[in-house]
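From the pipeline queue, job 12 of 40. The input is one protein chain; the requested action is below.

Action: predict structure.
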Amino acid sequence: MKFSVLISVYKNDIPDYFNQAVSSILNQTLLPNEIVLVRDGNVGIELNKEIQSFINNKIVKVKYIELDENVGLGLALSIGMKHVSYDYVARMDSDDTSNPSRFEIQMKHLKEFPDISVLGSYIKEFSANKKERYIKKVPTKSRAIKSYSKYRNPVNHVSVILRKSSVEEAGGYESVPSYEDYYLWLKMIFLDLKIENIPISLVDVRTTKQIARRRGWSIFRNDLYFFKKVYKEKYIKLHVFLVNLLIRFFVRIMPLSLTAFSYKLIRKFSK
Protein backbone atom coordinates (compact mmCIF):
# COMPACT_ATOMS: atom_id res chain seq x y z
CA MET A 1 0.00 0.00 0.00
CA LYS A 2 1.33 3.40 -0.99
CA PHE A 3 1.35 6.35 1.40
CA SER A 4 2.47 9.96 1.76
CA VAL A 5 4.04 11.90 4.63
CA LEU A 6 2.75 15.41 5.41
CA ILE A 7 4.94 17.96 7.25
CA SER A 8 4.51 21.67 7.95
CA VAL A 9 7.51 23.87 8.79
CA TYR A 10 7.59 27.53 9.91
CA LYS A 11 10.06 30.21 10.97
CA ASN A 12 10.39 29.21 14.65
CA ASP A 13 11.45 25.65 13.90
CA ILE A 14 15.04 24.85 14.88
CA PRO A 15 17.16 23.78 11.89
CA ASP A 16 18.91 20.93 13.70
CA TYR A 17 15.61 19.53 14.99
CA PHE A 18 14.16 19.72 11.49
CA ASN A 19 17.15 17.80 10.17
CA GLN A 20 16.67 15.11 12.81
CA ALA A 21 12.95 14.86 12.01
CA VAL A 22 13.33 14.42 8.24
CA SER A 23 16.32 12.10 8.68
CA SER A 24 14.09 9.82 10.76
CA ILE A 25 11.74 9.62 7.75
CA LEU A 26 14.49 8.82 5.27
CA ASN A 27 15.81 6.05 7.54
CA GLN A 28 12.53 4.16 7.90
CA THR A 29 12.41 0.42 7.30
CA LEU A 30 9.40 1.16 5.07
CA LEU A 31 9.84 4.33 3.05
CA PRO A 32 6.92 6.56 2.03
CA ASN A 33 6.14 6.99 -1.66
CA GLU A 34 6.28 10.77 -1.33
CA ILE A 35 6.71 13.54 1.21
CA VAL A 36 4.66 16.75 1.08
CA LEU A 37 6.43 19.60 2.87
CA VAL A 38 4.51 22.83 3.46
CA ARG A 39 6.55 25.94 4.29
CA ASP A 40 4.13 28.00 6.37
CA GLY A 41 5.46 31.49 5.60
CA ASN A 42 9.03 32.72 5.23
CA VAL A 43 11.83 31.04 7.21
CA GLY A 44 15.38 31.99 8.20
CA ILE A 45 18.54 31.31 6.20
CA GLU A 46 19.75 28.31 8.23
CA LEU A 47 16.37 26.58 8.26
CA ASN A 48 16.00 27.23 4.53
CA LYS A 49 19.37 25.53 3.94
CA GLU A 50 18.13 22.41 5.75
CA ILE A 51 14.89 22.50 3.76
CA GLN A 52 16.72 22.74 0.43
CA SER A 53 19.04 19.89 1.38
CA PHE A 54 16.04 17.75 2.26
CA ILE A 55 14.19 18.60 -0.95
CA ASN A 56 17.21 17.45 -2.96
CA ASN A 57 17.51 14.08 -1.22
CA LYS A 58 17.84 11.05 -3.53
CA ILE A 59 15.77 8.67 -1.39
CA VAL A 60 12.15 9.93 -1.46
CA LYS A 61 10.46 12.46 -3.75
CA VAL A 62 9.51 15.70 -1.96
CA LYS A 63 6.69 18.00 -3.03
CA TYR A 64 7.51 21.46 -1.68
CA ILE A 65 4.59 23.84 -1.11
CA GLU A 66 5.66 27.42 -0.32
CA LEU A 67 3.17 29.74 1.38
CA ASP A 68 4.06 33.43 1.30
CA GLU A 69 2.42 34.13 4.66
CA ASN A 70 2.08 32.14 7.86
CA VAL A 71 -1.46 30.75 7.97
CA GLY A 72 -1.16 28.46 11.01
CA LEU A 73 -0.92 24.71 11.32
CA GLY A 74 -4.56 23.88 10.52
CA LEU A 75 -4.69 25.73 7.21
CA ALA A 76 -1.15 24.67 6.29
CA LEU A 77 -2.11 21.02 6.71
CA SER A 78 -5.38 21.57 4.85
CA ILE A 79 -3.43 23.00 1.91
CA GLY A 80 -0.89 20.20 2.12
CA MET A 81 -3.64 17.58 2.05
CA LYS A 82 -4.70 18.83 -1.38
CA HIS A 83 -1.26 17.93 -2.73
CA VAL A 84 -0.87 14.38 -1.36
CA SER A 85 -1.18 11.64 -3.98
CA TYR A 86 -2.27 8.71 -1.81
CA ASP A 87 -5.14 7.95 0.56
CA TYR A 88 -2.91 7.02 3.49
CA VAL A 89 -1.10 10.04 4.93
CA ALA A 90 1.41 9.92 7.79
CA ARG A 91 1.80 13.06 9.90
CA MET A 92 5.15 14.28 11.15
CA ASP A 93 6.04 17.39 13.10
CA SER A 94 9.17 19.22 12.00
CA ASP A 95 10.97 18.77 15.32
CA ASP A 96 10.11 15.23 16.45
CA THR A 97 11.62 11.91 15.38
CA SER A 98 9.92 8.69 14.31
CA ASN A 99 11.22 5.30 15.36
CA PRO A 100 12.83 3.48 12.39
CA SER A 101 10.04 0.88 12.11
CA ARG A 102 7.13 3.28 12.71
CA PHE A 103 5.69 3.28 9.18
CA GLU A 104 6.21 -0.45 8.71
CA ILE A 105 4.32 -1.23 11.93
CA GLN A 106 1.45 1.13 11.19
CA MET A 107 1.00 0.21 7.53
CA LYS A 108 0.98 -3.49 8.42
CA HIS A 109 -1.80 -2.82 10.94
CA LEU A 110 -3.79 -0.75 8.43
CA LYS A 111 -3.47 -3.47 5.82
CA GLU A 112 -4.90 -5.96 8.31
CA PHE A 113 -7.69 -3.57 9.41
CA PRO A 114 -8.65 -1.45 6.36
CA ASP A 115 -11.71 0.04 8.11
CA ILE A 116 -9.50 2.24 10.31
CA SER A 117 -9.56 5.94 9.39
CA VAL A 118 -6.93 7.16 11.87
CA LEU A 119 -4.17 5.09 13.44
CA GLY A 120 -1.98 6.64 16.11
CA SER A 121 0.32 5.30 18.81
CA TYR A 122 1.87 6.10 22.15
CA ILE A 123 4.71 8.64 22.08
CA LYS A 124 7.85 9.04 24.16
CA GLU A 125 8.31 12.52 25.61
CA PHE A 126 11.81 13.51 26.66
CA SER A 127 13.45 16.53 28.29
CA ALA A 128 16.11 18.72 26.68
CA ASN A 129 18.92 16.74 28.32
CA LYS A 130 17.16 13.46 27.40
CA LYS A 131 17.49 12.24 31.01
CA GLU A 132 13.77 12.31 31.73
CA ARG A 133 11.56 10.17 29.51
CA TYR A 134 7.86 9.44 29.73
CA ILE A 135 5.56 7.31 27.60
CA LYS A 136 2.41 9.26 26.83
CA LYS A 137 -0.32 6.67 26.59
CA VAL A 138 -3.74 7.09 25.01
CA PRO A 139 -6.73 4.73 24.67
CA THR A 140 -6.30 2.11 21.96
CA LYS A 141 -9.83 1.10 20.93
CA SER A 142 -12.67 3.12 19.42
CA ARG A 143 -15.09 2.96 22.35
CA ALA A 144 -12.49 4.07 24.90
CA ILE A 145 -11.25 6.78 22.52
CA LYS A 146 -14.77 8.17 22.17
CA SER A 147 -15.22 8.39 25.95
CA TYR A 148 -11.75 9.84 26.53
CA SER A 149 -12.26 12.49 23.83
CA LYS A 150 -14.83 14.35 25.95
CA TYR A 151 -12.09 15.68 28.21
CA ARG A 152 -8.74 15.09 26.52
CA ASN A 153 -7.23 14.71 23.08
CA PRO A 154 -7.46 10.93 22.45
CA VAL A 155 -4.77 10.75 19.75
CA ASN A 156 -1.13 11.83 19.62
CA HIS A 157 -1.26 13.86 16.42
CA VAL A 158 2.46 13.46 15.63
CA SER A 159 2.02 9.69 15.51
CA VAL A 160 -0.93 9.27 13.13
CA ILE A 161 -1.43 7.76 9.74
CA LEU A 162 -4.85 8.80 8.48
CA ARG A 163 -6.98 8.30 5.41
CA LYS A 164 -7.30 11.38 3.24
CA SER A 165 -10.79 10.31 2.16
CA SER A 166 -11.94 10.13 5.80
CA VAL A 167 -10.40 13.50 6.63
CA GLU A 168 -12.23 15.05 3.69
CA GLU A 169 -15.48 13.37 4.75
CA ALA A 170 -15.13 15.06 8.15
CA GLY A 171 -14.48 18.47 6.61
CA GLY A 172 -10.70 18.42 6.83
CA TYR A 173 -8.27 20.32 9.03
CA GLU A 174 -9.54 23.73 10.08
CA SER A 175 -8.02 26.82 11.69
CA VAL A 176 -8.66 26.09 15.37
CA PRO A 177 -5.51 27.34 17.19
CA SER A 178 -3.90 24.69 19.43
CA TYR A 179 -6.72 22.27 18.63
CA GLU A 180 -6.50 21.56 14.89
CA ASP A 181 -6.14 17.82 15.45
CA TYR A 182 -8.49 17.45 18.44
CA TYR A 183 -11.28 19.14 16.51
CA LEU A 184 -10.73 16.83 13.54
CA TRP A 185 -10.93 13.74 15.78
CA LEU A 186 -14.21 14.93 17.32
CA LYS A 187 -15.72 15.46 13.88
CA MET A 188 -14.60 12.00 12.80
CA ILE A 189 -15.90 10.36 15.97
CA PHE A 190 -19.27 12.07 15.40
CA LEU A 191 -19.37 10.42 11.95
CA ASP A 192 -18.53 7.01 13.48
CA LEU A 193 -15.25 6.83 11.59
CA LYS A 194 -12.91 4.33 13.23
CA ILE A 195 -9.93 5.63 15.22
CA GLU A 196 -7.39 3.40 16.96
CA ASN A 197 -4.01 3.71 18.67
CA ILE A 198 -1.25 1.11 18.73
CA PRO A 199 -0.06 0.52 22.34
CA ILE A 200 3.63 1.10 21.65
CA SER A 201 5.69 4.29 21.39
CA LEU A 202 6.57 5.15 17.78
CA VAL A 203 7.57 8.84 18.00
CA ASP A 204 9.95 10.80 20.28
CA VAL A 205 8.72 14.27 21.32
CA ARG A 206 10.47 17.07 23.27
CA THR A 207 8.62 17.90 26.50
CA THR A 208 10.15 21.39 26.77
CA LYS A 209 8.23 22.31 23.63
CA GLN A 210 5.02 20.75 24.94
CA ILE A 211 5.07 22.43 28.37
CA ALA A 212 5.81 25.87 26.94
CA ARG A 213 2.81 25.55 24.62
CA ARG A 214 0.44 24.52 27.41
CA ARG A 215 0.37 27.70 29.51
CA GLY A 216 -0.51 31.39 29.42
CA TRP A 217 -3.61 33.52 28.89
CA SER A 218 -3.34 33.34 25.10
CA ILE A 219 -3.51 29.54 25.28
CA PHE A 220 -6.50 29.72 27.63
CA ARG A 221 -8.26 31.94 25.09
CA ASN A 222 -7.67 29.13 22.57
CA ASP A 223 -9.16 26.69 25.10
CA LEU A 224 -12.22 28.88 25.53
CA TYR A 225 -12.71 29.29 21.78
CA PHE A 226 -12.37 25.57 21.11
CA PHE A 227 -14.63 24.27 23.86
CA LYS A 228 -17.30 26.91 23.14
CA LYS A 229 -17.18 25.81 19.51
CA VAL A 230 -17.53 22.08 20.16
CA TYR A 231 -20.24 22.73 22.77
CA LYS A 232 -22.27 24.85 20.34
CA GLU A 233 -21.82 22.18 17.68
CA LYS A 234 -23.11 19.59 20.21
CA TYR A 235 -19.98 17.45 20.31
CA ILE A 236 -19.93 17.81 24.12
CA LYS A 237 -22.52 18.55 26.82
CA LEU A 238 -22.63 21.58 29.13
CA HIS A 239 -21.10 19.90 32.20
CA VAL A 240 -18.22 18.58 30.06
CA PHE A 241 -17.67 22.08 28.69
CA LEU A 242 -17.51 23.59 32.19
CA VAL A 243 -15.20 20.93 33.63
CA ASN A 244 -12.81 21.28 30.70
CA LEU A 245 -12.58 25.06 31.11
CA LEU A 246 -12.10 24.87 34.88
CA ILE A 247 -9.23 22.37 34.65
CA ARG A 248 -7.48 24.22 31.86
CA PHE A 249 -7.87 27.60 33.53
CA PHE A 250 -5.80 26.52 36.54
CA VAL A 251 -3.20 24.70 34.43
CA ARG A 252 -2.67 27.66 32.07
CA ILE A 253 -2.08 30.28 34.79
CA MET A 254 0.39 28.22 36.86
CA PRO A 255 4.03 29.41 36.85
CA LEU A 256 6.11 27.41 34.37
CA SER A 257 8.09 25.65 37.12
CA LEU A 258 4.89 24.57 38.86
CA THR A 259 3.37 23.45 35.54
CA ALA A 260 6.41 21.26 34.82
CA PHE A 261 6.27 19.89 38.39
CA SER A 262 2.57 19.06 38.09
CA TYR A 263 3.18 17.12 34.88
CA LYS A 264 5.97 15.18 36.59
CA LEU A 265 3.58 14.23 39.42
CA ILE A 266 0.90 13.17 36.96
CA ARG A 267 3.41 11.03 35.09
CA LYS A 268 4.79 9.50 38.29
CA PHE A 269 1.41 8.35 39.54
CA SER A 270 0.09 7.30 36.12
CA LYS A 271 2.84 4.74 35.47
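Job complete. The chain is about 45% helix and 20% strand.
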